[in-house]
Amino acid sequence: MPFQQFRPAVVAASTMSFLLLGTAGVHAEEPAQARSAPDIAVTKVMRHLDALQTISDANNGNRAHGTAGYQASVDYVRAKLDGAGFITSIQEFEFAGKKSWNLIADWPHGGDSGKVLMVGAHLDSVDTSPGINDNGSSVAAILETALTVSAKKVAPAQHLRFAFWGTEEETYIGSTHYVNTLPAAELSKITAYLNFDMIGSPNPGYFVYDQSPEIARHFDKYFTAKGIPTEPATALNGRSDHEPFLAKGVAVGGIFTGSAEIKTPEQAAKWGGTAGEAMDKCYHLACDTPANIDRGALDVNTDAVAAMVWKLGVRP
Questions:
Q1: DSSP assignment of 41-55, as one string?
Q2: Catalytic residue ranges
Q3: Judging by beta carbons within 10 Å of its beta carbon (0-12, 13-18, 19+), is residue 276 exposed, middle or buried?
Q4: Mean pLDDT rounded to a whole number for the chain
Q5: Could you say which of 40, 49, 91, 187 would form a disulfide bridge with 102 (CB–CB 3.0 to 4.6 Å)?
């Protein structure tokens, strides 16, 4: 997530073919175990974070735009999705004289092709950090959610599309390019875009995007059932990949555990943690490694990702 908002630069890029996938080859009856939202093991999510750290270690300590570390991150995620039966595609674009890529993954089984639930997270880091909380935490969560869709052989009610964005740290360049080059007829099929950016902060808060009240209500209901109070994610306004979708009138939602914001005494009283300290003391720093992750926050928030995919896309 970028530290502050800038006006997105003009991006020159190639176009991609967008997939319209039907229901061919899907069993008429969905497996019973696919009808309820899964409880995703945090150990599986952490394995992806360890892999992203290994990639960073081999590439000058980061996975930033235009670097071999970012390309290796794309390759890692794509291989997992390809192996699970997703139809993946790469959308190439250019920023500041360097190429980058969005990775798009469509689930080819089930779903009304005229209704698309899209779920995304940015895959790049800044050049000063391996980017494990920002934003490997969300990448790992939605990747493992996608792999669970495959493992459970889900035939969803809506078409499911997962996106891993490039160059978010330069103010959501990749997602802006995607939205701006998507034909209007295809954009109109997106019923909601769920964005996840930093969900495992070490001194976590529990923040819910409030731009689309109906989606926010579903997230709040999930956290209320867990006994966790929430606050609006106003600190994220103008700072992540939901903004280009919101600007086009797409309903958006998501969750956030905080970055450089200082936790107040009131927040510490309801969420635990340490008042007077940043929610992520390693934000954009070299110490944003797997050791920086609060596994409890990552666990509950990964399950929130899956719960919203099931609620809005699998059985709406």
A1: -HHHHHHHHHHHHHH
A2: 168
A3: exposed
A4: 91
A5: 91
